[in-house]
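User: C-alpha cells for this one?
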Amino acid sequence: MIFGMETELVARYSIMKNPQGNDLTMPGSINRNGQQLVRFVRKGPSNPLNRIYKLSCTLCAFEYSAYGSDLWQRKCPSCQNGREGLPEE
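Assistant:
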C-alpha cells in the first residue's frame, strides 16, 4: 500500500459524515432518513477498513446492521423499503 493511502482509506470508510458535516459513526447520530447509529458491531469480512454498525429506525424501532460506508444513505428495511441488513456474525 502506498504511504499515506491507508490513512485516507480509514478516514473514507470509518468516518462517514452527513451533508451537514456531522460524524455518522458516533453512537446516537441520525442520518437523513431517520436511521440512528446504535453501536459498532465488527470489522467487515472482505474489507477490514469498512466496519459494520448496528442501526435503529427512529420511525419503527427496527434494528439491523450495515456497512459504515452506507450509513449516510441507509433506509429502514422494515418501513422504508431499504436493503436488508447484514449478518452480525
